[in-house]
């Protein structure tokens, strides 16, 4: 007659291994962790997104002159002006659709990054990825693909978020859509342009997210692997919160450097008035390439880096908070699920 321990062992042996996949390696859990972590991060960084949006739209397609009147001079002054005249609600404009965009973008990016990366590694190396065989081009390709997919899913929310954040009764920049809220904005966009209207500017958003994600996910992977390999004797292991913090700091700068030109173009493509007659293009730009061209030829090359500091002050902390949160959520999942 077998003992209780032997019976339990027989039951555990009979359960297929697939049923005991760790939560932190499960795509659904990774999607949940990425969504929750990014929503937590954007709660703190959304005011800098408002500032960045207005700095990028200010002086749109206007040649810079010494006498040009600018409402927003720099990040600190813009933050103060918006806070003083519009209050905390002004600084947190677009937070609701911002949450939805983060769920669509980062849930997809972080949920599917590891499976897509492993697929690429098996295709080209015959084995799954690991910290010992990290290949940057494959990481970049996986991150870019996941970012493009997430941007496509979240595009309508980024569209309405941008238009809400640019609106101001005190100091208007760019075209003013004057939505009462996210739901009103989505309803009006649908009424005026249907499905095409909701996805206007998606091509620019996919370029933006593809560039940002390929750098963000790949460099974060690389920094984390490098730190854990070389500084483990100082306690900076792969699962250390300090490792995640340092990797995020380095990642945020490089992402901002690569993504800011695409971010300026994306902001302008989203915020422009629809073309008369309901055409696919907007009133100012027909497509992202024309937006790049008109912006550079009218305002100069460095106009593509408008709002860079605000972008980094949003993206840097957002990257740090998001990756620290997601790593801790995964750790909790490994412990309790």
UniProtKB/TrEMBL annotation:
PROSITE patterns registered for this protein in UniProt: SOLCAR
Mode of membrane association: Multi-pass membrane protein
Transmembrane segments annotated in the record for this chain: none
SUPFAM superfamilies to which the protein is assigned, alphabetical: Mitochondrial carrier (SSF103506)
One GO term describing the cellular component: mitochondrial inner membrane
Spans of repeat Solcar: 25-119, 134-226, 239-332
Cellular localization per UniProt: Mitochondrion inner membrane
Keyword Repeat: yes
InterPro entries: MCP_dom_sf (IPR023395), MCP_transmembrane (IPR018108), Mito_Carrier_Antiporter (IPR051508)
Domain of life: Eukaryota
Predominant subcellular localization, coarse grouping: mitochondrion
Keywords, in A-Z order: Membrane, Mitochondrion, Mitochondrion inner membrane, Repeat, Transmembrane, Transmembrane helix, Transport
Family classification: Belongs to the mitochondrial carrier (TC 2.A.29) family.
Name of the protein in question: Mitochondrial carrier
Organism: Coemansia reversa (strain ATCC 12441 / NRRL 1564)
Upper lineage: Eukaryota, Fungi, Fungi incertae sedis, Zoopagomycota, Kickxellomycotina
